[in-house]
From TrEMBL:
Matches recorded under SUPFAM superfamilies: Periplasmic binding protein-like II, Winged helix' DNA-binding domain
Keyword set, alphabetical order: DNA-binding, Transcription, Transcription regulation
Species name: Streptomyces zagrosensis
Chain spans, region Disordered: 177-199, 336-360
This protein's name: DNA-binding transcriptional LysR family regulator
GO cellular component: protein-DNA complex
Amino acid sequence: MLDVRRLRLLRELALRGTIVAVAEALTFTPSAVSQQLSALEREAGVPLLERTGRRVTLTPAGHRLVRHAEAVLERLEQAAAELIDTRQGLAGPLRIGTFPTAARAIVPAALMALAREHPQLEPMVSEVDPAAVADALRARELEVALVHDYDFVPARVEPGLSTEPLCTEAMYLASPNAPHSSHAPHGPHGPHGLTDASDATYAPAAAPYAPAAAPHPPTAAERPGPGIAAWRDAPWITATPGTLCHTMTIRACQAAGFTPRVRHQVDEFATVLALVAAGQGVALVPQLGLAYPYPHVVLTPMAMSRRTRIAFRSGAGQHPAVAAVATALRSVVPAAMRDPQEAPDEQAPEPAVTTRPASA
């Protein structure tokens, strides 16, 4: 009989490439991982690994066994979900991963909704970069997580994981609201193409812990203003290299025919907007990043979007706790963000930001 824990190690080796990486991810020693994989080979009765010097690769039999391991692990997740579903009520810790914007704008309201329906659940939230979510879920450090992707940085298909859509955000070009600013594009609003102060007004969210909601994504007819290329000569503010947000900005600018001249690199959108308001550059900001009032910032809608998805281990989607979190998250996302073609329902919070296109 093949040991399930050893099958999981083989699957991790196929994903991570080295025994050292598997050991670091699962908090084992490399020697312990090697011993367990050797034991799995003895159980299987055929070579699963090929050792060349210090490198280890999977044999064809090893790759075939990994495919079976994926199916076995998914069925075990489904079995655990069915067993938990027989209990009376949900209780105990539930580890949730999220990226910073959602941690502020969506998760607190969802936790309140979750507490009302399942008071015995103990959600534990951790900020996790979307790039690290797959490893954290597979290592069972998280039960559910929020991830995002952009038009220019599509989501990867991660083995052993499943996702469900949560919301879609509009993207905005944030620029300084100063007529003399050298960061402004040329356009129909005078020599710099900027709107005046009345073109961007700000207000706090409608209620404590209500998700921030900018206007629903503009339609093509509402996009007569300058595109990204109009800011090719401006200094840019991006996220730090290696993040999805940084890659998104670089690729969006390259698609418009230029490489941005990056002046500042920060990951928190509140800081990004503060730097824009101070005249330090321009930046691309998603809808949920617009909760704070910066009266000296002009927001121009872009023909781009960011999508947020709920991620979990394959087979765990029907786990009652995972399903409860997904339901709570969806209950607090404004209808306009769930479906841009649909008007917000009466329960959705008032917009935190009101804008109009850069040109009338």
